[in-house]
Each structure stands twice: as structure tokens, then as C-alpha cells.
Design brief:
Layout: H1 3-13, H2 20-27, H3 34-50, E1 54-62, E2 64-65, E3 88-89, H4 92-105, E4 110-113, H5 120-133, E5 140-143, H6 149-157, E6 162-164, H7 179-191, E7 195-197, E8 200-203, H8 209-221, E9 226-231, H9 248-262, E10 268-270, H10 275-279, E11 284-290, H11 306-315, E12 319-320
Parallel strand pairs: 1-4, 1-11, 1-12, 4-5, 5-6, 6-7, 8-9, 9-10
Antiparallel strand pairs: 2-3
Helix pairs in contact: 1-2, 1-3, 2-8, 2-9, 3-9, 4-5, 6-7
């Protein structure tokens, strides 16, 4: 056992703040090493303490598919990946039905996702209808393009409790988005009273430890209600496919190390969708329906269900929050 690794892990478990160099040290371990498993054990211990032993299952409804001008190379909506040549939009009735099904199945929060090209006015109109159909205490979370303070206020007025917003791996290089714009959106959302969830993703073999550290520290500085790390799921034929993808075993210690860096102040730790990740500290997962940027089907077949997500947590020994999300303002 590497003594320095052990000391960093002990520091995190005892409530100390992990520095960027310390996180870099944690991320440098081999994924099948003794240190990697200790990092995962510590992340699970820290997550359980921060969230009082509870896990949450949220659910996302993808409203539309089609070519998106941001052209993120890891996304099925990117024109470069040639998956969706024309825009398709689910009907209002279908969107509401999907949201209500997720709520009935026990999802703790409902997310509404659109591509960056989707008009904000249309999105807000749909959101108001979904908000009216859901139970008053079911939190809604927005997953939309960047916006200014006026947009943030409009989202709040439409009934959203928060947003999901990420400065992705390779942002500005394999995406058409300036990272500074992403940060401005987060600031606008928080000024309007919207809570923010984020993630260090999508991580692939080509990403350096330095970039993972950088994105983790940026995420932590946002003071989000949840943060985590997720691996990239390659779109067939995408420019990034040549790099391959991490296995769950390779991603798990990365996800765990990110949790240790986030500390006790961020109770929600997002990541993979299996019991493997749940054992490594993940206590937040998403079911998905409709469009999915990781899927080549307009109505996702890989998104998972609320029940499958709950079962993964239960198999890993987590209790599931019943009712509204605690992360987004529930009891």
C-alpha cells in the first residue's frame, strides 16, 4: 500500500479538503490495485455519511432529437456523427405521459432535456404543462442550452428547482461551446435561486489526469447539490471512437476519487448505472426516456428504468429516498 495514498484517503474521510495535487495522486493508481479499492471504499463511506445512507433515482425525459449546432463529438445529436439528420420532437402528450410514468414509478425528480437548438420559449411552454401535471412537490430540473439571467428567471418562474449543467471533458475542443459561457450560465442559475447539479464527464482514455483534476475542481467550485464522474459511451462512427472507452472497472476508481475531492458538503454523487458504481460511492442515477445523447435511437433503449436504477442501488446496500428529491429541496 502506498503510504501517501493512504494518508490522502484518511484526510478525505476525516473531512479534510483534497488539493489538486492530492487528487492527481489518487487518479494515478492502477484500477486493479489495492489503492484503487481503498479509494472506492472510502468514497462509499463518505457518500453514505454525506447523504445519510440514502440514494436517489432521478429521471430524464428527452424532448427532441436532431442535428445540434454545438456539434459535441461524443453526442448522437452532433452533425459530425450523422445519426439524426432531421429534428424530431415528441408530442406534448407523450412528454407529459413519460414524466408522469417516471413520477408514478418513484423517480425523485424529473428532468426535461432538449438540444441546444431548441427554442427556449417552446421549452418553457412545455415545462409549464409538465409542471401542472406533476405533483406540486416533485422537483423539475432543466437540462438545456446556456442562458443568461433573464433565462434563469424564466426557468425559475416556470417551476424548475434546478439545472443540470456541465463543463464537459474537452469543452471548447470537441464541442462548440466556450467553457466560460458554461460558467456564466451556472452563475445566472444560482443568482435566480436554481440549484445546480453537475458531473465530470464524459471521461475517456484520451483524457489526461490533469484535465480530470481541472474539471473536478471547477465542478467543486460551483458548489453543486450533486457532482460525480461518468465515462463516455461511444457513438458508433464518432471521431472519439478511435480512443476506445473505459470499462466500469476502470471508471470506478476515477468516480470514487472525484467523490473524495468533493467532500462531505456535496451529498449527491452521480455516476454509473450499475451496482459496481454504487459500491464506489455513487448515490444518484438517472432513468431515461425519449431522446438520449448516448443513444442512436430517437426513443432511448439504453436509458434504463426507475426500477432498474433502484435495484442497482438496493443490490449495493443503499436505501432509496421515497418521494421528492432531498438534493433539490425535498424533505
Amino acid at each position: 500500500m502506498d503510504k501517501q495514498i493512504s494518508q490522502i484517503i484518511s484526510k478525505a474521510v476525516e473531512g479534510g479538503e483534497i488539493t489538486a495535487p492530492e487528487l492527481q495522486k489518487l487518479l494515478s493508481v492502477h484500477y486493479l490495485s489495492e489503492e484503487a479499492y481503498l479509494i472506492q471504499w472510502a468514497a462509499r463511506k463518505l457518500s453514505a455519511a454525506a447523504a445519510k445512507g440514502k440514494a436517489e433515482v432521478h429521471a430524464q425525459v428527452g424532448i427532441n432529437v436532431g442535428p445540434c449546432s454545438k456539434n459535441c463529438h461524443f453526442c448522437s445529436f452532433a452533425p459530425i456523427n450523422k445519426v439524426f439528420p432531421k429534428e424530431q420532437v415528441f408530442s406534448r402528450a407523450e412528454i407529459i405521459e413519460k414524466a408522469l410514468r417516471f413520477e408514478a414509478d418513484g423517480a425523485n425528480a424529473i428532468y426535461l432535456m432538449v438540444t441546444a437548438n431548441y427554442k427556449m420559449a417552446d421549452y418553457l411552454e412545455i415545462a409549464r404543462d409538465v409542471r401542472a401535471a406533476l405533483k406540486p412537490d416533485t422537483p423539475m430540473v432543466a437540462n438545456v442550452d446556456d442562458f443568461d439571467e433573464a433565462g434563469a428567471s424564466a426557468l425559475k418562474t416556470a417551476g424548475f428547482a434546478g439545472i443540470y449543467h456541465v463543463i464537459r471533458m474537452g469543452e471548447g475542443v470537441v464541442t462548440g461551446i466556450d467553457p466560460k459561457v458554461r460558467l456564466k450560465t451556472v452563475a445566472a442559475a444560482q443568482k435566480a435561486g436554481l440549484l445546480v447539479g453537475t458531473c465530470v464527464e464524459p471521461v475517456g482514455p484520451e483524457h489526461s489526469i490533469a484535465e480530470i483534476v481541472e474539471k473536478t475542481m471547477l465542478a467543486k467550485a460551483m458548489k453543486p447539490v450533486h457532482a460525480g464522474s461518468g465515462r463516455r459511451i461511444n457513438i458508433p462512427g464518432s471521431p472519439l471512437e478511435v480512443h476506445g472507452a473505459f470499462t466500469e472497472a476502470q471508471q470506478a476508481p476515477i468516480t470514487a476519487a472525484v467523490k473524495l475531492a468533493m467532500g462531505y458538503d456535496i451529498p449527491g454523487h452521480a455516476g454509473g448505472d450499475s451496482s459496481h458504481f454504487a459500491m464506489a460511492g455513487v448515490n444518484l442515477s438517472w432513468a431515461e426516456s425519449g431522446s438520449n445523447p448516448r443513444d442512436t435511437k430517437a426513443n432511448t433503449v439504453i436509458g434504463g428504468t426507475v426500477d432498474s436504477r433502484r435495484q442497482a442501488f438496493e443490490q449495493a446496500g443503499w436505501e432509496i429516498v421515497e418521494g421528492p428529491s432531498r438534493l433539490f429541496g425535498g424533505r
